[in-house]
Design brief:
alpha/beta; about 20% strand
Length: about 140
């Protein structure tokens, strides 16, 4: 059986393809997820996808992930910049979490260049569109051999 990973999307990412396509692209959420699951499978990984606009739901899913998954690719959206609760959850689960962002957060609003989750993640990738997720999946595959 292949290793399982979790791809997590935070707030507003369910609106991919509709929300600010100049920043986030014009591919819809379902197509992005299909692409990511297919990409993971090409690396011998089984990927599940989870999205929530609610901080507590993301934390609950991170807690659950510690016994079911080899690692997590997480786009925490705006929670990246201020959710110490999500940072604490990542720190507590002891499986690798890769922080990803579609846009280059350093080329946008100043507040977006601060990540409170980065120090507890295995790594961070931003600015490559949906490819950021694929790079995160590749990193997890390499880290969990």
């Amino acid at each position: 059986m292949s290793k399982k990973i979790l791809i997590m999307h935070g707030p507003n990412l369910n609106l991919l393809g509709e929300r600010e396509p100049g920043i986030y692209g014009d591919t819809n959420f379902e197509a992005v997820n299909t692409r990511l699951v297919t990409f993971a499978k090409s690396l011998g990984l089984e990927a599940d996808v989870f999205q929530s606009n609610h901080e507590g739901a993301l934390i609950d899913k991170l807690h659950e992930s510690r016994t079911e998954y080899a690692g997590v690719v997480l786009n925490a959206g705006a929670y990246t910049h201020y959710s110490y609760a999500i940072a604490d959850a990542i720190k507590a689960i002891r499986i690798p979490v890769i922080e990803v962002h579609i846009s280059n957060v350093f080329a946008r609003d100043a507040f977006r260049s601060n990540s409170v989750i980065a120090p507890v993640c295995a790594g961070s990738i931003s600015g490559f569109g949906v490819l950021s997720y694929e790079l995160g999946i590749q990193a997890l595959e390499a880290m969990t051999k």
